[in-house]
């Protein structure tokens, strides 16, 4: 984790760009560890972005854009995905963002 805090309190959307990209990269690394090779990732199916934020923060979708843009830059058209972004009161270790990803992968059996 490279940053801590909440959006709308001590962090801005731009402040969390790098942390959101890092969380997205971590998702690729986790999937690669399971399937044995990042090249076995065929498609990004769905991305969920959890944003630790103050009650008055309402631009969660803009934080999620950092993740979506990252996946498009890495995977091209196969990086297009369904997406949700939600605000939460806290995340583990005071992380500002958490990214959940569903990938389609080649058969690894």
Automatic annotation (TrEMBL):
Q: What InterPro entries has UniProt attached to this entry?
A: Endoribo_LPSP/chorism_mut-like, RutC-like_sf
Q: Which CDD domains match?
A: YjgF_YER057c_UK114_like_1
Which residue range or ranges hold the Endoribonuclease L-PSP/chorismate mutase-like domain?
3-96
Q: What is this protein called?
A: Endoribonuclease L-PSP
């Amino acid at each position: 984790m490279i940053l801590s805090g909440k959006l709308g309190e001590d962090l801005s959307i731009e402040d969390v760009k790098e942390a959101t990209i890092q969380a997205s990269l971590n998702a690729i690394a986790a999937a690669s560890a399971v399937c044995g090779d990042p090249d076995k990732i065929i498609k990004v199916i769905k991305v969920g972005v959890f944003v630790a934020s103050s009650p008055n923060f309402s631009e969660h979708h803009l934080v999620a854009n950092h993740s979506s843009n990252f996946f498009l830059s890495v995977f091209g058209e196969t990086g297009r995905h369904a997406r949700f972004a939600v605000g939460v009161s806290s995340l583990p270790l005071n992380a500002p963002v958490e990214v959940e990803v569903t990938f389609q992968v080649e058969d690894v059996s």
